[in-house]
Amino acid sequence: MAIAGTLKLVKLPNSAISRRNILVHPPEPPMELLFGDPTTSIYIGRTKIFNVPFYWTHENVANPHIAVCGISGSGKSYFIKTFLLRAAFAWNSNALIIDWAGEYRDWVKQSGGKVIGLGRGSYLNLLDLGGMKPYDRIKQIMRTLELLTDINQYPEQRRLTEQAIERTYLENKFRMDSREQKDELGNPLTPPTLKDVVRVLSEQSQMGSYEFPAELENAIYRLKQFTKSGEDFFAQQSTVKLDDIVTSGLVDLDLVGLPDETMRALAALTILQFIKEKMRIAGAMEGARQSGLRLLIVLDEAWKIGKDENSDAVMIVREGRKYNFGMIIASQNPTDISEAIFSNVGTTFILKVKFERFLDYLQGSLNFSNYMREEISRLGVGQAAVNMSLTTQTPYPSTFLLQKVEGEEPSKEYFLDLVAVLSANQKRDIKVSRNVSFLKEEFRRKLRQFGLTDTKIEQITKSFEKANKRMDVVSFVITLERDGIARRNISEFLKDSGIDDITIINIFGKVDLKKSGGVGREISQVVIEV
């Protein structure tokens, strides 16, 4: 059926046509959302299509939390380091890096920050309150044990453990429903430890009156894994002060000295729980919001606590912006980041992603177009796609492309791989460094002292650059010897890099074996000076 009507020609300006979005579908958000005040926002880079400077601010997004995804070498840590430095400048923000693999330790030192090494002389008492009521802290401890152990499958063991923790607080004269915990003279009470909890359960077992002794013994056994001598990192009084790690500028909480993933996850969850309560209390006391972010927390490759939807990492992301702290969660594998996090973070930076299943997960979580998926699959190092959960509804896409992350140029480091010269026991020992690092300029200066020409030095540095700034230590020593550097000088260089005497001897033994073609063993003459 045809309907008669009148066709009218109307003159319209281009701006009006653009707003109607009939002929044009803008590939990027408008400039007013991208180009923020440089004094109160973080410069990231320029957009790919219109070359607009992108300044990130939490004011434009649903919450200040950030997810970062990309393969190794794509620029994740480069982006994070840049972001933290600029946040400190723009907002005077503090930053806490929960450093799973010790990746940020040297950079934090170079930047004038503070490194706290758990498992290397620092302790964190699991029963510290951090300003919480004992009843609330007990709930957190039990939730942590549920995430990291199988205690939730044994309700009676869970009940026994919870009761024992409560009893230790009461024995130490803590008031269970109060934040203020002081003795008659006004001095702070000393909290109990996990060793006290094990003692309470052991005393109950020795009485012999409990009707399920096996349940009691299993509850004791589970907690003893955290109280063994030499592994009681969470069962001694804290040497880590919470106020210091959230107000001291840039802090790296180095977890590489802890023996396994469970211990690292326990440390990370405990710190997150303390910080969450600290921010709640501070936010309630201050009342009004302050500009910027008071604290940025970095979780890099923390898959054990980033994947579970009951994790405190997820709970903190859901808290949103009201306490003025933000979390940056980074991973090579986006499936290690819970969908609950992707659905709640305000901004996701997607760097180079290699596998189709990872792209499937990202596209399903962030709902970007197939065109954007194709663009992401072709990203180079430092290039990124940005997904923003904007606070206002607009006809513009929430995902757009950056030419590259324009970061602060870091001090270049070179790395010597020691794995080939470590013993089997050393390789199993998490505390033994698998590589050592040194700054490029210091390295070049040292080579000049050894008498090498600039041409030789340039050849050696290019060898590092071609291998992603890495070289195995045996090949490195052979290269230096070929260029005429004496073993005495090479030994001095290795010692200055932090390599112990026994390992140096092993290195020269491997060098001689390789130079001889692996047939027979020559005796290495190594001079180790004290």
Give a description of the structure:
By secondary structure, the chain is α/β, with parallel strands linked by helices. It folds into 3 domains: 186 residues, P-loop containing nucleotide triphosphate hydrolases (Rossmann fold, 3-Layer(aba) Sandwich); 91 residues, no CATH class; 103 residues, no CATH class. 42% of the residues lie in helices and 13% in strands. Strands 5-6-4-7-8-3-9-10-11 form a 9-stranded mixed sheet, sandwiched between helices. It has a 3-stranded mixed sheet with strand order 13-12-14. The chain has a two-stranded antiparallel ribbon with strand order 1-2. α7 runs antiparallel to α8. The longest helix has 26 residues. The chain is globular.
Summarize the structure.
With 530 residues, the protein is α/β, with parallel strands linked by helices.
CATH superfamily of the largest domain: P-loop containing nucleotide triphosphate hydrolases
The major beta sheet can be summarized as: 9 strands, mixed
Q: What's the CATH first level of the largest domain?
A: Alpha Beta
- Helix run count: 21
Q: Outline the low-pLDDT stretches.
A: 17-24, 520-530
Structural class: alpha/beta
